Amino acid sequence: MRILWFILSPLIALAVGLFFLGLARKFLARTQWRYGPPIYQPLIDILRFFTQKSVSHGAVFDLGVILSLAGSFIVVLFLPFGGICPLQSSGGLLVILYMMLLAPLGLALTAGEAANPNSSIGVSRMFTLALGYEVPLLLVVLAVMARYDTISIVEIVAAQREGVSNLATFPLVLAGIAYIMILPALLGLRPFDVMQAPQEISSGPLAELGGRYLALAQLQHAVNMFIVVSLFVNLMWGGSSNVLIFLLKMIAVLLFVLWINASFPRLRIDQAIRYLWRWPTLIAFLGLLLVEVMRK
Amino acid sequence: MSLELLMAIALGGAALTYILSGVDSKLRDAVAVIVSLTVATGVALLYGRTAEMTIATGFLGIPVGLRIGPFSWLFAMTVSAVSCLSVIFSLSYMRGRQRTGFYYAMLLLVDAGMLGVVLSGDLLTLFIFWEIMSWSTFLLISFNGGPALAAGMKYFVMSIIGSLSMLVGVVLIYVTVGTLQFAGVAAGLSEAASGYRLAILILFGLAFGVKSAVWPFHAWLPPAHSEAPSPFSAVLSGVLIKMGIYGFLLVMYVALGLKSFFSLGWRVLPVHTILAIIGAVTILVATFIAVIQTDAKRLLAWSTVAQAGYIFLGISFGTAVGVAGGILHFLSHSVFKALLFMVAGAVEYRTGGVRDLDSLGGLIKKMPVTFAAALIGVCGLIGVPLTNGFVSKWLIYKTLIVEGSPFLAFVALIGTWGTVLYGYKFLHNIFLGQLPEKYKDLKPAPFSMRLPMVILALTVVLFGVVPGLPLGVIDSIGSSFGFASIGVTAGGVAAETGTINMINIFAATLIGLILAWLIFRAGARGARVDQSDSYAAGAYVPADKYQYSVRFYDPLQRLMGSWLKDPVDSFYGGLAVRVGKVAEGLRRMYTGLVADYVMYVVLFLAALILVEIVWRPW
Predict the structure, then answer these.
(1) Out of A121, B181, B195, B394, which residue is the most buried by the measure of CB atoms under 10 Å away?
(2) Between the CA of residue B580 and those of B138, B154, B388, what are the distances in Å?
(3) Count of pairs with CB atoms under 8 A, one residue in A, one in B
C-alpha cells in the first residue's frame, strides 16, 4: 500500500499542478477581460510537445530535465497532502529544503549544456533570485520549526489546529506576513518572473528547449507550483487531514498569488533582491525573534 | 604494522625519494607512489587498534611518543588516503617540470608531518611534527615562484605566529602540570583555574585557528591555495587545514575535557558559543566572497574557508550530534574538496595553466569524466542529498535548530545557497556553455589524473548513501570525548530528536528518477545538434562570442560589491607595512662603524649597571 503511494502522490501532484497552470491562464485572461483558453489547455500543450521534434545538446542536457522533474517528484514524497505523506520519518523539513535544490540544479545543468547566453543569464538570475527569497524564507521556516520545536513537517502539521481560521496564528503572525510577501517570488510569478522574462531573454533557461524537453520543463513547473503552495498551507495554514479542504486552501492561496501576478509589472533582478532583503527579511527576522522570545 | 615503523616509512620514504631523483625519474615516481600506498595501507590496517608507546626520552628527559585510537585513526586515514591520491595525481601533473624530486620529497614529508601530528601521544611530539608540517608546506606553496613566493610568505608569517603561541602554551602546560602526555595534561588541567584554562585555549587556538583558516585568521589561505601546485592544493585544502580542526578537538575535548570546556566563559556568553559564532561569521563572509571570484582555484579556496566554518561551528557548538556532524563534515570536505582541486588541476594541466573562469567554457565535450567528477564534487559541496556533504550538514543544522540556536542555523543554511551560486558558476564557466575554438582539440585528462578523481567521486556518493560507515567510527570518537551515542544506523542516524535514513531517501530518489525518465521516454526523440546550432532570434551565432560567463552574477556583484571586501586582509597588509617601517627605522642602528657598535655595548652595560644599582633585581 505504501509503495503505491510512492507512485501515486507524484502523479496527484502532477495533476493538481496542471490544473493550477490552467487556472492561472484562465484567471489572467479573465482579469484582462479576455475569454482565455479552456482550463485543460496546459495538458493539451504538453501532449502536443511530446509528439513534436526537438533538439538535444548532449547527455547532460537530457539528464538535467529528468533530474529537474525527478527532484520535484521527490519533494512531493516528503510533503503531507491532506493526510497523505509517503516519507514521514527521513529527515523532515530540512530534507525538503535540500531536495528543493534538485529541480533548479537540474534546470541549470540543462541550460548550461544548451550553450545559449539567454539560458545562462536566466540561470544566473534564477540563482540570484533564489538567494534573494531564501533569506526571508529560511527565517520563516526556522520560526515555524522553533515555534513547534521540531524539524518534522508532519509534527508541525499535527501541532496546528484543524480548520480554516488558523492562518498564521500567534506568535507566527509576522512570519506568516513575510511568507505571504515572498510567495510570488517562490513561484517565479510577476513581479518576480525575472528568470524567464520572455521579452528580454527569450524565456531564459527554456530558450533551447523544445518538444519533450519543454514538456518536462512545463511538468516540473506544474509540480513546483503544487510544492510551493502546499508547503505554505502545511506550514502556515494547518494543512488538513481532509484532501478536499487541503485542496481548497491551496486554491485560495493560489488565487491570491495570481491576483498579484495579474496586477504588477516585472521588477528588475536587483530591484527584486533589494525588495526581498528589505521588508520581508525584516519582518521575518522580527517574526523569528518574536517566536524566540515567546519560547523563553 | 607498528606505529614507529609507519612513521619511519613515511619519513624515510620522503628522504629516499629525494635521493632517487638524482638516479632515475621513473624509479623515483614509483617509489613515491609505493611509499604513500604503503603508509595508507598501514594506517588502514591499524583500524580499531588502541595503543600508546614511547619512542625516546632523550630531550630534556621529556618522553616523546605516539598513540592511536579512533580519533587519531580517522584523521590518519584521511590524511594518508588523500595524500596517496594526490601523489598519483601528481605523476602526470608534474611530468617534465623542474625540481620534481624536491616536490615529491616535500609532498611525502608533509604527509609524514601530518601523520605525526595526528598520531602523536604528547604535546612535544605534536609540536615537532607540527613544525615539520608547517615548514615543508611553506616550501611547497612557494614551489612555483613569482606570486607563489608572496603567498608562501604570507602563510609562513601567520603560521610562525601560531607556532610560537603554541610553543608558549606547551611550555606553560609543562611548567604547571609537569607532563606533556595527553592523559596527564587532561588530569592536570581539570584542577586548574578557569582563567588559566582559557589562556591555554587561546594560545593553542591561535595556532590551530591559523592552520584551519577560521576567520579572522583566514587571510593566508586564498593566495596559498590558488598559487600552490594543484595536487598539493588538494592536500592543503583536503587535509592540511584539518590539522587545525584536529588540534581544536584535541584541546577542547581531550586536554580540557567536555565539562571543563563548556564551563569556560560567562553564563550568558560561554566561550564555546563565541567559537560557534566565529564559525558562523566565517561561513557568511567567505561564502559571499567566493561567489565573486574569477579564478577557479581561488573560488575553491574561499569555499574551503567557508566549509571550515561549518566544521568549526559543528565542533564548537558542542552537542553530541553537532560534534559528530563537524567531524563528519571534516571527512566529507576532505573528499570533495580534494576532488574539486584535482578537477581544477586537470583543467589547468590540459589548457596550459588556465584558471580564469571567464575564458574557459564547454570543456564537458572534451573532458566528460572530469566533468562528472566535478559535478559530484560540487553536489557534495552544496550538500545535495545522496552525497556525503548532505549528511554532515544535516547533522549540524539539526542540532542548531533543536538546541535552540535558529540564528546560527540561519547563517549556516543561507551559506548553502551561496554555495549553490559559486558551485554552479564553477561548473558552468569551465564545463558548460560554448567551447572556445582554441580548445577544439583538447584531450581528456590522463589516466593517472582520472583515477584519483573517480575514486574520490565514488567515495562522495558511497558516504552519502551509506553514511553509517564513517559515522560508526565518529560515534566511537564521540564516546571517547564523553558524549552520548548518537544512534548510528547504516543509513544515518536514528535518535529520539530526529531521524535520517539515507537509504530511504535513496529509494525515493530512485522512484522519482524512474518516474521522470519514463515520462521523458514517452516523448519523441530529439536530434543531437552542434553548439553553433543555437537559438539566436534568427541572427548568426558568432564563434567564441556566444557565451555568458564574465561577471556571472553581475546584479548581485553590483548590489553587494562594496560589502564584499576583506577588511581582515587589508588590516594584515597595513600591519605588515607598518612593521616594515619600524624595522627600517631600527636598521639605521647598523652604521657599519666599529666605534658605534662599541658605544652600543658600553651603553647597554651602563644601562644594566644602572638597573642593578637602582632596583637590585639580580
Answers:
(1) B394
(2) 21, 14, 46
(3) 244
Task: State how far the Cα of B63 lies from the Cα of B51, in Å rounded to an integer.
Answer: 16
Alpha carbon separation from A109 to A59, A61, A113, B564 (Å, rounded): 10, 7, 6, 27
pLDDT digits (tens, 9 = 90+) for B433-457: 888 888 888 888 889 889 999 999 9
Task: Tell me how far apart the alpha carbons of residues B363 and B347 are, in angstroms, rounded to a whole number.
Answer: 9
Write out chain B residues lying below 8 Å of A269, CB-based: 555
Residue in B417, B523, B527 nearest the CB of A130? B417
Residues B92-150: tens digit of each pLDDT: 888 878 888 888 889 999 999 999 999 988 888 899 899 999 998 998 888 888 888 88
Q: Please, which residues bridge with residue B495 across strands?
A: B498
Judged by average pLDDT, the poorest of A34-43, B22-31, B340-349 is: B22-31
Residue of A nearest to B418 (CA): A131
Residue B51: phi and psi, rounded to 5, are -150, 155
Q: What angle do CA A205, A211, A215 make, to 5 degrees?
A: 65
User: Residue B184 burial by CB count (10 A; 0-12/13-18/19+): exposed, middle or buried?
Assistant: middle
Please give the pLDDT value at position A100.
Answer: 87
* Mean pLDDT to the nearest integer, B53-74: 81
Instruction: Name the residue among B371, B390, B537 with its Cβ closest to that of A98.
Output: B390
- CA A169 to chain B, closest CA, distance in angstroms equals 20
User: Model confidence at A37, in pLDDT bands (50, 70, 90)?
Assistant: very high
| Predicted ipTM of the assembly | 0.91
CB B166 within 8 A of CB B204: yes
CA dihedral of residues A242, A246, A252, A256 (deg, nearest 10): 160
B88 CA to chain A: closest CA distance, Å? 29
The Cβ-side half-sphere exposure at B410, using a 13 Å CA radius, reads 22
Nearest-CA residue of chain A relative to B544? A115
Pairing of strands B492-495, B488-489: antiparallel
**Number of folded domains in chain A?**
1
> Looking at the partner chain, which of B406, B499, B534 has a beta carbon nearest the beta carbon of A208?
B534
Asked if residue B230 has pLDDT above 90, the reply is no
Q: Least CB-CB distance to A120: which of B416, B527, B548?
A: B548
Angle of the A59-78 helix axis to the B502-522 helix axis, nearest 10:
130
For residue B372, give how far its alpha carbon lies from the nearest alpha carbon of chain A (Å): 10
pTM for the whole thing?
0.90
CB contact under 8 A, B406 and A146: yes
d(C-alpha B560, C-alpha A123), whole Å: 19
**Domain assignment of residue A91, given as a range:** 2-295
Measured between beta carbons, the chain B residues lying within 8 angstroms of A212 are 520, 522-524, 526
CA B451 – CA B370 distance, rounded (Å): 10
